[in-house]
Amino acid sequence: MNTWLNEAEQKALNQNLSNDARVLYLLGLKPSIDQATGQTPALNYKALLAMLNAKETKYTLGRQVNALIKELLQVELVAFVEDVDLSKSFNGKILLLPLLMLKSDNYSQLHLQWQKMSTDWTPNNALYRDLAKLVGIIDSEFSDHEIGDFVAYWLGRPETQFTQFQWTQKFVFNVKQKRLAKNMSAIHKVGNQVVTAKAGVVADENAKNLVAKYSGKLKSTSNS
To answer: How far is CA 2 from CA 8, 9, 76, 143, in A?
Structure first.
């Protein structure tokens, strides 16, 4: 087994990717990551273009590098640390390589069997928590509604098969994407993410608003 690539990375790299996207991951991103966090330095398109054009000039535009990164995003080899507009340049942004940070021994069995989506599918809880932490999901709990939406989508694509590791991985990224949705009506938000509101948090905020409202009235009454 290739010890430089863990099993999860190998599976992802063998999905529908261009060879240039694989080169970008293996030579442009992975060697520079912070081993403690799994994060790249800020993307430097000038350096990445030089690496991609080592033998012949194939890439001259930033949007071409964007396209390769989007390929890696599709198979969940990379994720952005912060919310990013996918229509703009990624130059200067920071990527996370989540699969690199997983200990493959813990989840090796999840790579063995490929399966279609089923109505009773649920993510592997331990893997979900680990991946959620790596990609920065604040509220690591997931709802039946989130599972239902995910399952319903993939039931409509019966030709698609993934391992339990890959299904769970896709679910994690789906949850993050939905919670980062700008137009989603949030019960409560932390930063850019939509999270399930805790009763105590909402009550506390409502109490603060009431205090502010009526303390203002009391001041105006006492001054009149």
So the answer is: 12, 10, 20, 37
Same structural domain, 58 and 82: yes
- CA torsion angle 165 169 174 179 (round to 10): 130
The C-alpha atoms of residue 79 and residue 135 are separated, in whole angstroms, by 7
Q: Are residues 85 and 13 in the same domain?
A: yes
Same domain, 108 and 158: yes
Q: How many CB atoms lie within 10 A of CB 174?
A: 17
Alpha-carbon distance of 128 to 222, in angstroms, equals: 56
CA distances for 182 relative to 90, 175, 213, angstroms: 19, 14, 29
| Cross-strand bridge partners of residue 163 | 114
The CATH number of the domain holding residue 148 is: 1.10.8.1180
Q: What is the pLDDT of residue 190?
A: 47
What's the pLDDT tens digit per position in 32-47? 999 888 899 999 999 9
**What's the pTM value of the predicted model, to 2 decimals?**
0.62
Which among 132, 218, 213 has a CA at the least distance from the CA of 176? 132
**Helix (H) / strand (E) containing 146:** helix 144-155
Question: What confidence tens digit (pLDDT) does each residue in 59-96 have?
Answer: 999 999 999 999 999 888 998 888 788 899 999 999 99
Q: Could you tell me if 149 and 198 lie in one domain?
A: no
Please answer whether residues 154 and 160 qualify as being in contact, where contact means their C-beta atoms are separated by less than 8 angstroms.
yes
Q: How far apart are CA 221 and CA 77, in angstroms?
A: 62
What is the C-alpha R_g of the chain? 22
